[in-house]
Amino acid sequence: MKSIKKLSLLLVILALMVTMAACDSKKDVPANAPGPFDDQKIVVSGLLERDFEITQGDLKKLAAVTKHAESTRSNGEKVIVDATGPLLETFLKEYGKTQKDFSRIRFTAGDKYSIAVPQEILASRLVILSYVNDGRPLEDDYQPVRIVIPGERAMYWVKNLIRMDFETGADQKPPNKVVFLETAAKNLPQEDYQYYDSVDKAIKTQDLIAEYADINDTVVANVFMKAGDGLQKNETKANFLAAFIKVTGQDQPKFLAPQFPQGMHIRDLLYIIYGQTAIFDYTEGSACLPKQTFGDKEGIAFSQIFKQTGMAGGNKYKFTSADGKSIVLTNPELGEGGLIYQNAEGAVAFTCTGTSGKQNVEDLLSVEMLQ
Amino acid sequence: MNKKGWILSACLGLLGLVIGAAVMGAVSCSPRYIPPLKVIGDVVNSITLQDPNGMGKLETISLQGNKYKAVKLAEIINRAQPVANAKQLYLVGLDGFTSAIKVDDIDDCYISFSAKNGWEAVNLKHPISSNAKQIKEIVVVSDGSTRDFAFNVIDPDKKLVQITPGQLLARPLTEFPYPEGKAVIQNDGKEYESQVFTKRRVFKLSDLTPVNEGDSFLVLDEKGEYRLVDNGGYFEVSDNHINYLQPDTRSILEKVKGVIVRPPAAGIMDIYYDTRHYLDNGDRILVAVLDGLTYNQYSYAVENGYAPFLENYSMVIKASGVYPPAANVSLAAMLTGKEAKESCIITAGDRELKVPSIFAEAVKLKKQSILLEADQKLLETEVQPVSVTDKNGSGGADDELYEATLANLDKGYDLLMVRFHGIDDSGARYGESAEETMQSISAADEYLKQIVNRWPGKVIITGNQAACTSRLVGGEAQFSNDAMFVPYWRAR
């Protein structure tokens, strides 16, 4: 009788252990282990020419990170999670994009809840496409992906993600004009700038923007800058407009100001995006971008300017030289696109051969998209 | 009653009990909202109470014929760990009614919760007006004497403001609706929008101290991140710390430790950029780091004739240091030119740089470099430092470092970096202005004179605020004029 009791007790304990193990089966699985929601689809819009679908399984093939995130709900409750999954940046890299390329990204949930993550957040925060939270696969109603943005409120943490819309319009439009820094600088007041042992020349960013961009553009909060070595930085409008661009001597063109810590300076500046105007340095571009030849001339393909600055493509462009003369060329007149190069006088120039024959613009100041 | 009757009665009784228990259970489990009560201000841990039974040891007390189940206020405050010298408590009601009581007088003060009055102060010996009802916050206010917990505002010459989160919460603050975002949901083919804001209690720096039009501020947080800003942003008092908000860019710096108004353009991170510039330029560069030498200390030494060489060598620049002032954090900033957040050297225990140092840059430029130091290895860098020991038992290795530096001057190094430690050792032992410390400065001054005179290339000399305050790292790390500025020389 006693042994039956013992056996029963043992069976009960065993059953309990099995039950507990079963209850805990979701814990500590490898982050990218196959799961029942691997085939659940998420629509991606605005990244390629046509919408396409990805699955949780696709995301599991990307490098994953785990980040701790906390957020407070309106009732004071804290939402705390260790979110695992690929960064949105990692996903975008597959398509040659970064978060900063978009004015906003809208995430939509299965219940049609959606939120647009604005550019300010995209510029400064990590976005995690999480499929594991606190070491466990997501709860079923959170599948296949829960967006987690550490440092932002839980309203941005969209669960049961079914759609991602990548938007470049509305708040910030892509550049529609490119100004060549070398030519622009010649037309602006230049000041002596003590730079270590030499005295170089510098222009005020305030002058540059006032002359060649819309300095009163209230949409501009940040100014984007990229250097030839790939360094990218956003600077506040106020700081940017209080600075200089050194246009001669070592490290030029260099964004700097005597009052700025040197960590804020950017040497070998490739381009600046101020609102809808891109300011491009041809010399830096020719040093770090693929070379193109056109007849006996070597330079940068006109299309590289678009690729680098994200400038919108159009049907008609106005090419303006430093003396104010301009020509308008349509796509057929541009032929294969044309070449930006440095002419014999050391000035930036443009040449192309299209339906209306060879076209040249010497001392090129700007290119503006008209349509 | 027969047996059947008894059984029937017992069954009915049991049924009644079950139904009664179920009804009571349903009543007691019926949802009810308990508003949060926060303890904020000058406390190490800001806490939120939302469970009347979990707030501490419940006692039954009576006041004016009413009985309360309540917890001692002191017990709640202690859980939040008030910083030293907590003086005043503000009991803030939902309608803004606020009673202020002294921390020293709270032995007979209690907090109770009832459905009628919410969180309620029951102060047995205070005037009845102190018994605030529907309390939403208890603000702990210290006397502000602990600089380490305070929000500090300095300029390159003096301390401007030292104020704690609790003291700020006791002042008038602006309620700013900070835009959080806009959510949309589609229902029946129509889009419904919700624009979300959070009300933040904010102030501008100009509310605390006079600032001039166009002044810039260097805002530093507890993790070493910094931002150069103007007076356009806001400082938010959040529970027990200060954040910096820039609504236009949604840029936030959390747990700000202090602000330098009109900061000097130079900083210790310049070592990286200056060295890179010289190496790029084909120059040879000597970098001498004087651990423990702060700007104020240097000025004192010059005034008293302890640093004749440095005084006449080249124009000294006042350079900003980093926060927190730990030896490795500061050294990482010098070697990488990056703030602590980027180099990932944030605490005194961090060793591994996450970004390349100037030695990696030297390798990239095919330049030869050497690092001479006597201290234990503070950071993992791309070069193995040459460790110099106190061979002659003089009590420090600066004399050996001096000899080692001289011995390496002609060996073709493009970058030679040496860290002297004697000033820091003396400062820690005897005091920063003690005669012994001044003698250490004097010795370093003479070493540098001999070294610099024999070095054919460029020279950078800097003090290192971090090392001198390394003993204060942690809760005592200071944001002060003494700790935050060092002398910097860039010459030849």
Could you write a compact summary of the structure shown?
Chain A is α+β, with helices and mostly antiparallel strands.
Describe, in plain words, how this protein is organized in 3D.
- About 4% of the residues of chain A have low confidence.
- Chain A contains ten helices and 28 strands.
- Chain A starts with a helix and ends with a strand.
- The longest helix of chain A has 22 residues.
- The relative contact order of chain A is 0.10.
- Helix content of chain A is 21%, strand content 37%.
- Chain A folds into two domains: 138 residues, Sulfite Oxidase, Chain A, domain 2; 193 residues, no CATH class.
- Chain A has 371 residues and is α+β, with helices and mostly antiparallel strands.
- With 492 residues, chain B is of the alpha+beta class.
- Chain B has three domains: 106 residues, Sulfite Oxidase, Chain A, domain 2, CATH 3.90.420; 115 residues, no CATH class; 222 residues, Alkaline Phosphatase, subunit A, CATH 3.40.720.
- Chain B has 15 helices and 26 strands.
- In chain B, the strands form five sheets. Chain B has a seven-stranded mixed sheet with strand order 21-26-25-20-24-22-23, sandwiched between helices.
- About 3% of the residues of chain B have low confidence.
- Chains A and B meet through β6, α4 and α7 of A and β12, β15 and α5 of B.
- β6 of chain A pairs antiparallel with β12 of chain B.
